Amino acid sequence: MADALNLTSLAVALRASRGLAAKADIAAIAGGLGLAASPIPVGDDCAAIPDGDGFTLFAIEGFINEFVAADPWFAGWCGVMVNLSDIAAMGGRPTAIVDALWANSAEAAEPIVAGMRAAATAYGVPIVGGHSNLKTAQSQLAVAVIGKARALLTSFDAVPGDRLIMAVDLRGAYREPFNNWQAALAAPPERLRGDLAALPEIAERGLSRAAKDISQAGIVGTAAMLAECSGVGIAIDLDAIPLPPGVDLSRWLLTFPSYGYLIAAKPDHVGAILSLFSARDIAAADIGVLTVGTAVSVMSGGRSETIIDFAERTLMGCGPVGEREAVP
C-alpha cells in the first residue's frame, strides 16, 4: 500500500514524470498539422481508417536516440513489439511491418536489424520493406505496422461508470537502466501471439469499446490519455494495481511494460475480461472507475491526490471526437 505519508510525494513525481511530459508534446505537433479537423480521431494508439466491414489500422513509433544507442538489439525488438501492441490495443490483428533505420555503418545497424527480425519472427508478422541510411552520424529508428480490426477498442469510447481494468504480464524483469519491463524475450512465440489476440477477442465479443496500451507515460499517464480523449475523469486505486514482487510502486507506475493494457468496461463485463486474462496467466485487476468530470486522481488508504485536471490544462489536446480543440 502507498502509505498516507508517501501519497503526496508520489503524486508530485507522477505529475513531473518525463513520460507524461512527452505526451504533452503531441498537442503542438497535432495543432501544427491541423489534425483537430481530421475525420480520423487523433490521440488513439493507431489511426483507424474505415475499410469495408472493418478498419485498417496504422501505427508508428519512433525511438529515443539514447535508448537506441544504449541497447540497439532491444530497440529493434521493441520497434516491432510496441507497434504490435498498439494494433492489439485497438482490437486489431497485425498484417505487416515497415521500418526506417539510420546508422553510420552496416555494422552499427546490424544489432538493430537483428532485434527487429527476431521480434517479427516471434510474433509471426512479416517485415515487408522500409527505408535505410547507413551514412548518418547516429543510429535512429522508427517502425510502422499496418493491421485490421473487425471491432474497435478506442481512446474515445470510455464513459462514466465504466470500471478501469489493468492487464499486465508480470513474468519479466526490468531491462536496466530504463523503466522497460520486458516479459516477452523468453516467452514461447505461440504464447506471445495468443496474448495479443486477447484484445481483439474482447472487442469482437463486445466486452469493451475502449482501451489503451500502457505506454512510456506509465500507468497513470496512460489513464490520463484515455480520460482526456473520452472526456471523463478517472479515479485509480493504487492498492489494487498488479505489482511484480520486489518492485517499488513508485517505479512501477512509471514503467513501460512489454505487455500492458488499460481497458474500460461495464461492471457486468469485468468478470469475463478478468477470466480471459487469467486463463493466459496474465495478471489483471479492476483498479478504478471512470467518472463524470475532468480530473485523473490516485487513491490509497482512504486518501486521494489529483494528478491532472483537464479543466485546468490539457495533456495531448485531444478531447472527445468533434471537440478536439485544445483548451486555451
Q: What labels would you give this structure?
A:
globular, 2 domains, disordered C terminus, 9 helices, 7-stranded mixed sheet, 5-stranded mixed sheet, Phosphoribosyl-aminoimidazole Synthetase, Chain A, domain 2, disordered N terminus, single chain, 328 residues
Précis, in short:
By secondary structure, the protein is an alpha+beta fold. The protein has two domains: 4-36 and 154-309, PurM-like C-terminal domain (Phosphoribosyl-aminoimidazole Synthetase, Chain A, domain 2), CATH 3.90.650.10; 45-149, PurM-like, N-terminal domain (60s Ribosomal Protein L30, Chain: A, 2-Layer Sandwich). It is 34% helix and 28% strand.
Report what the structure shows.
By secondary structure, the protein is of the alpha+beta class. The chain has two domains: 4-36 and 154-309, PurM-like C-terminal domain (Phosphoribosyl-aminoimidazole Synthetase, Chain A, domain 2, Alpha-Beta Complex), CATH 3.90.650; 45-149, 2-Layer Sandwich (60s Ribosomal Protein L30, Chain: A). The protein is built from nine helices and 15 strands. It has helices spanning 4-15, 18-32, 65-70, 72-89, 106-123, 189-204, 218-230, 249-252, 270-278; strands at 47-51, 54-62, 92-102, 127-133, 140-149, 163-168, 173-174, 180-182, 210-213, 233-237, 256-257, 260-265, 283-291, 295-300, 303-309. Strands 9-12-6-13-10-14-15 form a seven-stranded mixed beta sheet, with helices on both faces. The protein is globular.
